[in-house]
Design brief:
Radius of gyration: 55 Å
Strand order of the largest sheet: 3-5-4
Strand content: 5-15%
Largest sheet: 3 strands, antiparallel
Structural class: mainly alpha
Shape: elongated
Distance between the termini: 157 Å
Helix content: 55-70%
Length: 531
């Protein structure tokens, strides 16, 4: 079923579709003879990537059309961070877009305003989207746009729908007229309106426009630079230099400067009244600092002047002074940073030294506690050894009944009767039994004391390890201590070590004596039985 659609100029047509918007195709041979040629609502239809080819042109039409300009701009952080302006007044939309480029919190790096056909709504209006960060700065910028262009409301103030419709239709006619007469310039000095539908203009048209702008004031230098960039992209290899020399009378150096100015000053408003030489001089100021430099006054020969009030020499001197001041500030900051870094390193080293000292003190304290524990254990072990020695001595001194038993006269007679050898054998058996009982008593005493060979070896190893560890910690503390303090603490330490060595030697000698006593101990001799 065919539906009726309306173009921005009011032209209607029918198309067999149910879509809210559709394209009014203008034909691949769309050119100056077409009734819509120059209309800024005409967009190209492109195919291919990365090499794009234009296959047709169209005007985005809708089933209904609304000429009223409205906005949906957030004013609080709770709102979404995208500001929308819906309008058919593209000049008004561009003014808002250019104003937004200088605001804080802008989350959009596009260098050109997006006018693609997909941005036209079902009511025919263009949807300008402005993206800001959801921060205080971003919201403040949204509020600034709302207040400046919409008086804080949603509708464009002071305009009726009919007035806005008239403005849009006039803009269409003006664009079409300028497209067919590119050097017809308004009294304000603005350049010819470029038509997005014309993908590649002729080199003759570009040449004509550059020569026109050369005859104008310096505010058109940026426009010349833009067209030089455009021409260089079109010309074939080897054609650029002859074209510069013969057609527009530019040297290569001048052309490069003009193109550089055009690239650097995409927003021409702050520098619109400056001369070519001033524009070149300002290129020395970084782009993100340039606008602030332009807005401020600078001290030149004892007088405060703006950039527009300065001569070329004064501007160059002001830039030089600025660069030197920044250099001094950077050097001061680097010096301060270096001093702070050295101070921080010194603090870090002192802290490390202090931490090491405190760690040594903690280790020393633990060593003291270990020494005290070992001393207590040593006293306990010595007591156990003393008790054991006493038990063994008691066993050694205990009378052996068999060995000292007094024989009766009858036994003696019997022994004499049995003979000396039998008596000796019997006595030998009694002696062996006594020795066995003595050895069993000694072993039982050792078992009662609970001392095992493995336990003794482990205790000795633990003692040596503890001694080495505490000695190392003590040595570390000594190296960190003043010599006067070392001289005061060393004599008592040496005396105490000598006492410990003496105690250990006494214990070793005692153990050796006990071992020898075990080997040399004998029961009473057997000769008491000889007559």
């Amino acid at each position: 079923m065919k539906q009726k659609y309306i173009c921005k100029c009011g032209k209607t047509f029918e198309k067999d579709t149910t879509a809210d918007t559709t394209g009014y195709r203008l034909g691949a041979d769309f050119g100056p003879d077409h009734e819509c040629y120059g209309c800024h609502f005409v967009v190209p239809i492109e195919e291919g990537y990365p090499k794009v080819k234009i296959v047709d042109y169209e005007c985005r039409a809708s089933r209904k059309i609304n000429y009223r300009t409205t906005s949906d701009i957030p004013r609080t952080r709770d709102s979404f961070h995208v500001a929308h302006v819906n309008t058919l007044d593209i000049t008004f939309a561009r003014e808002i877009w250019e104003f937004s480029r200088a605001l804080d919190g802008l989350d959009d790096s596009h260098k050109e305003m997006d006018l693609r056909g997909v941005l036209y709504r079902s009511d025919g209006r263009y949807d300008l989207g402005l993206y800001f960060t959801k921060t205080k700065a971003g919201i403040a910028s949204c509020v600034a746009i709302s207040d400046k262009f919409f008086a804080g409301g949603s509708d464009r103030p002071g305009m009726t729908v009919e007035q806005e419709r008239t403005i849009v239709l006039q803009q269409i006619e003006t664009s079409k007229k300028k497209a067919k007469d590119p050097v017809r310039i308004s009294a304000s000095g603005s350049g010819p309106v470029s038509n997005g539908a014309q993908n590649q203009r002729s080199i003759d048209q570009i040449t004509l426009e550059i020569n026109f702008y050369k005859a104008q004031t310096a505010q058109n230098i940026i426009e010349i630079g833009k067209r030089l960039i455009e021409a260089k992209q079109q010309l074939q290899h080897g054609e650029w230099l002859p074209w510069l020399r013969d057609k527009v009378e530019f040297s290569v150096n001048s052309a490069d400067n003009f193109m550089k100015i055009a690239r650097e000053y995409s927003n021409s408003q702050p520098v619109v009244n400056l001369s070519y030489t001033k524009l070149l001089a300002l290129l020395q100021v970084p782009e993100d600092e340039r606008e602030e430099f332009l807005q401020e006054t600078h001290l030149v020969d004892g007088q405060e002047k703006t950039v527009s009030e300065m001569s070329k020499r004064e501007l160059q001197e002001a830039i030089k002074q600025r660069d030197e001041a920044q250099q001094r500030e950077r050097q001061a900051q680097e010096k301060c940073w270096k001093a702070e870094k050295e101070a921080a390193q010194a603090r870090k080293e002192k802290k490390t030294e202090y931490n090491n000292y405190m760690d040594a003190l903690v280790k020393a304290e633990k060593a003291n506690e270990t020494i005290k524990a070992l001393r207590g254990s040593r006293q306990f072990d010595l007591q156990r050894i003393t008790d054991l020695e006493t038990q063994i001595k008691e066993l050694e001194s205990r009378p052996i009944d068999v060995a000292v038993q007094e024989l009766s006269e009858d036994d003696k007679k019997k022994l004499r009767g049995e003979g000396y050898e039998d008596a000796a054998r019997s006595y030998k058996i009694l002696l062996d039994r006594a020795r066995e009982e003595l050895e069993q008593a000694k072993n039982q005493a050792r078992q009662d004391a609970g001392i095992e060979q493995d336990e003794l070896v482990a205790a000795a190893e633990s003692f040596r390890d503890s001694l080495d560890s505490n000695f190392d910690n003590f040595q570390l503390i000594l190296r960190l201590s003043p010599s006067q303090a070392i001289g005061a603490v060393m004599p008592p330490c040496i005396r105490h070590l000598k006492e410990l060595v003496s105690d250990l030697e006494d214990t070793a000698n005692m153990a050796q004596n006990i071992s020898l006593a075990d080997e040399e101990f004998e029961l009473p001799p057997e000769d008491g039985f000889e007559e």
